[in-house]
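Need a sequence for this fold. Nothing fancy.
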């Protein structure tokens, strides 16, 4: 699989900058003296459907037909959540970009493009229960062609994502969230929007520094 050599250093740099920002927040004492500050790790898991927005500008061959722009989408996200508005984490998942049938006389086939995002992601609570997410990283693209034989090719594209989620708590550690997300693989000019439902689980908590 082809790996763009700029992707890993860029993601590491973004992660370091994000961690520095959170540690800078840690120097501020938002809680009254003597009250422990809680940190937590939060897991987001969910799925839904996506819709491909970019134009499909194929060269005229006379054989492409029945384009499908919608398909399944899924997300796995883990966030470090201190008692501040800004959170930092990692995100991956799956998204089907588009597919189409190939017909050339008696010969038929199918082609499709999908992606696995690998993102450094920030999150911030805008108001109670409403969160915004922003990510930067890479989309690992897979193109499949089944036409007189099967061909699978892989590539990478730097990209971003932006999402807005509204969550409804169902216990002290668990919530259900509805999320709308825009994904942009800007190197390959692929734009996708998705609507997903998520389970949000705060699976680990620990005390931070106590105020003096």
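Here you go.
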């Amino acid at each position: 699989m082809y790996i763009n050599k700029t992707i890993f250093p860029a993601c590491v740099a973004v992660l370091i900058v994000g961690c520095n920002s959170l540690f800078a927040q840690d120097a501020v004492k938002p809680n009254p003296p003597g009250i422990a500050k809680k940190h937590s790790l939060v897991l987001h898991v969910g799925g839904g459907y996506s819709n491909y927005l970019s134009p499909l500008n194929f060269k005229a061959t006379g054989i492409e037909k029945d384009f499908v722009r919608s398909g399944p989408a899924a997300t796995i996200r883990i966030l470090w959540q201190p008692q501040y508005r800004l959170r930092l984490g990692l995100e991956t998942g799956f998204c089907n970009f588009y597919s189409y049938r190939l017909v050339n006389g008696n010969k038929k086939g199918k082609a499709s493009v999908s992606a696995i995002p690998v993102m450094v992601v920030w999150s911030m609570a805008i108001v109670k229960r409403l969160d915004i997410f922003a990510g930067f990283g890479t989309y690992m693209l897979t193109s499949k062609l089944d036409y007189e034989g099967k061909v699978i090719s892989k590539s990478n594209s730097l990209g971003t994502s932006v999402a807005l989620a509204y969550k409804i708590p169902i216990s002290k550690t668990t919530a259900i969230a509805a999320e709308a997300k825009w994904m942009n693989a800007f190197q390959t000019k692929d734009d996708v929007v998705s609507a997903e439902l998520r389970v949000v689980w705060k699976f680990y908590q620990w005390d931070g520094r106590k105020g003096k």
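For context: Strands lie at 36-52, 64-68, 70-81, 86-104, 107-127, 130-146, 150-169, 174-185, 190-210.
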